Amino acid sequence: MGTSTELVLFWVFAIPLMVSAAGVIAARNPVHAAMSLVSAFFWLAGIYVLLTAHLLAFLQIIVYAGAIMVLFLFVVMLLSLTDAELGLEKLTALKVVGIVGSAGLLGLVVTALAQGTPVGVKAVGEDFGTVKAVGRILYTQYLLPFEATSVLLLVAIVGAVVVAKEKI
Amino acid sequence: MVPTTHFLGLAAFLFALGFAGVLLKKNAIIVFMCIELMLNAANLTFLAFARQQASMSGQAIAFFVIAVAAAEAAVGLAIVIAVYRSRGTVSVDEVAALRDP
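Structure tokens for the assembled complex are given below, as produced in the milestone run.
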């Protein structure tokens, strides 16, 4: 693929991604926010494919858009929240500071990116980012963190049950 | 190949949106969604640099970030349910027992 084609594809994925990410903040209804987030995850998976991270792109859809967002929707459903229960969001001084702070953060990073000298992207082989290659690095170089992650997930499962259950 | 700065700028935008959401939103569930957005921005940065350096370590780290995000969502939403059960609200402005003694 030529560079211009990839650049076009980048914006094809990036613009809907930014719009749906903004939808998460703009939505008043938690279900609408969750749906915007699912859409953002799908577009982000497209960006991952552009970065030759095929395994991560599929994990993004399966784990994030699939598992995690279903969890979110279940909780939204269980709590059955309406806008009236939560009331209007008040614009306090702290929130103004929040808006200014996040805009400043974005401005800072973008300015820093604009001023730096661009570094060329190295060429990668055929198997970069495939299931086989990433799996091999996970089971050799990152074996200990990989196994620690399984313990972390176990702790999270037990912790979630203990916290959410009324009586054990 | 798209320059790395494009991906980093996009990640900065996503992170700033998530940051603003965490500070502005009242509903604890939406605050969690914004945290997921920030974690995704971090993942995008890892993958952009992994591609630039032609090193798959960044992809392994992104894998771990996804696993940690799953654990965080499970525990965090359990806490939201527990808070709703004891106080009847998930508004982060009203759950302030530690702030206002």
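The radius of gyration of chain B is 17 Å. Chain B touches chain A through 71 residues (CB under 8 Å). Further analysis is deferred to the final report.
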